[in-house]
Amino acid sequence: MAVQSDADIVIIGGGNAALCAAITAAEAGAKVLILEGAPKAYRGGNSRHTRNFRCMHQKPMSVLVDRYDADEYYEDLLKVTGGKTDPELAKLAINASEECQPWMEANGVRFQPSLSGTLSLARTNAFFAGGGKALVNAYYRTAQALGVEVLYEAKVTHLSLEQNRVTAVEFSYQGESHILHPKAVIAASGGFQADTDWLAEAWGPAAKNFLIRGTPYNRGVVLKDLLDQGIQSVGDPTQCHAVAIDGRAPKFDGGIVTRLDCVPFSVVVNKNAERFYDEGEDVWPKRYAIWGRLVAAQPDQIGYVIIDAKSLNLFMPSVFPPIKADSIAELAEKMGIPAEKLESTINEFNAACTDGDFHPTELDGLATQGLTPPKTNWARPITEAPFYGYSLRTGVTFTYLGLKVDKTAQVQGPQGAVENLWAAGEIMAGSILGQGYLAGFGMTIGTVFGRIAGKEAAQYANH
Question: In this structure, are residues 148 and 419 in contact, taking their beta carbons and an 8 Å threshold?
Answer without folding.
Answer: no
